[in-house]
Amino acid sequence: MALTRRIIPCLDLKDGRVVKGTHFEDLRDAGDPVELAARYNEQGADEVVFLDITASKEKRKTIVELISRAADQLFLPLTVGGGINTTADITAILRAGADKVSMNTAAVQNPKIISEGAAAFGTQCIVLAMDVRRNYIPQDGTTEISLPDGSSCWYEVVTHGGSRPTGIDAILWAKEAEERGAGEILLTSMETDGTKEGFDIPITEAVASATNIPVVASGGVGTLEHFYEGFVTGKADACLAASVFHFGELTIRDVKEYLATRGVPVRL
């Protein structure tokens, strides 16, 4: 039997509210996170992701309280990311009711936190959140990826909400994270984030082919067809979206019924 594909709404949090932008900028308010999460629970989402995009030590209490409130109402897995820097942070998030934690900046700055988290809580709890952007300047040791227009590039890992380039090749980092114990990769392309023009298929397919852990495609979905492309062409195990769900353009049910008619196995 084919593995069921997952549909995951993502709630980007700032100051306790859900926000959505384009290319990680121009944020607009999208509502209360607990109310939105409850709506997606009713619509049949397979998971929900909370990302505290402006996380800092001062806001840690806020996110923990939010997780606790949401977990009380949800009956589906909850992944939380943002400002998680230590195993103590992971402990606090999981104790508040999250099932998984995702780490981006902290994992790049201290890769051992992936290994430590996996050893302490299990690989199923540790998600590598990898934000990437295209880099057209050749660099030794990077993985060249062909684009639909015939050009090629390599994908660079970026941190701090997309504001800081790292010089790290996305494919090599994905492989290292898997070796260190990450159980899943949440892959967001800055090229397509918020554009509604579709997922960045070249990097999604490349990461999925280079690793043996689930890959969640994120960034750019705007139509039902984009979800299909993410699964079939991009080889993703799950597709994540935000604005199309937050602003009522599509429902989880719409997406799953469409995918089922196209032969993609989903939980209805």
From TrEMBL:
<keyword id="KW-0963">Cytoplasm</keyword>
<dbReference type="GO" id="GO:0016829">
    <property type="term" value="F:lyase activity"/>
</dbReference>
<dbReference type="GO" id="GO:0000107">
    <property type="term" value="F:imidazoleglycerol-phosphate synthase activity"/>
</dbReference>
<dbReference type="GO" id="GO:0005737">
    <property type="term" value="C:cytoplasm"/>
</dbReference>
<dbReference type="InterPro" id="IPR006062">
    <property type="entry name" value="His_biosynth"/>
</dbReference>
<feature type="active site">
    <location>
        <position position="131"/>
    </location>
</feature>
<keyword id="KW-0028">Amino-acid biosynthesis</keyword>
<feature type="active site">
    <location>
        <position position="12"/>
    </location>
</feature>
<dbReference type="InterPro" id="IPR011060">
    <property type="entry name" value="RibuloseP-bd_barrel"/>
</dbReference>
<dbReference type="GO" id="GO:0000105">
    <property type="term" value="P:L-histidine biosynthetic process"/>
</dbReference>
<keyword id="KW-0368">Histidine biosynthesis</keyword>
<dbReference type="InterPro" id="IPR050064">
    <property type="entry name" value="IGPS_HisA/HisF"/>
</dbReference>
<comment type="pathway">
    <text>Amino-acid biosynthesis; L-histidine biosynthesis; L-histidine from 5-phospho-alpha-D-ribose 1-diphosphate: step 5/9.</text>
</comment>
<dbReference type="InterPro" id="IPR004651">
    <property type="entry name" value="HisF"/>
</dbReference>
<protein>
    <recommendedName>
        <fullName>Imidazole glycerol phosphate synthase subunit HisF</fullName>
        <ecNumber>4.3.2.10</ecNumber>
    </recommendedName>
</protein>
<comment type="similarity">
    <text>Belongs to the HisA/HisF family.</text>
</comment>
<comment type="subunit">
    <text>Heterodimer of HisH and HisF.</text>
</comment>
<keyword id="KW-0456">Lyase</keyword>
<comment type="function">
    <text>IGPS catalyzes the conversion of PRFAR and glutamine to IGP, AICAR and glutamate. The HisF subunit catalyzes the cyclization activity that produces IGP and AICAR from PRFAR using the ammonia provided by the HisH subunit.</text>
</comment>
<dbReference type="Pfam" id="PF00977">
    <property type="entry name" value="His_biosynth"/>
</dbReference>
<dbReference type="InterPro" id="IPR013785">
    <property type="entry name" value="Aldolase_TIM"/>
</dbReference>
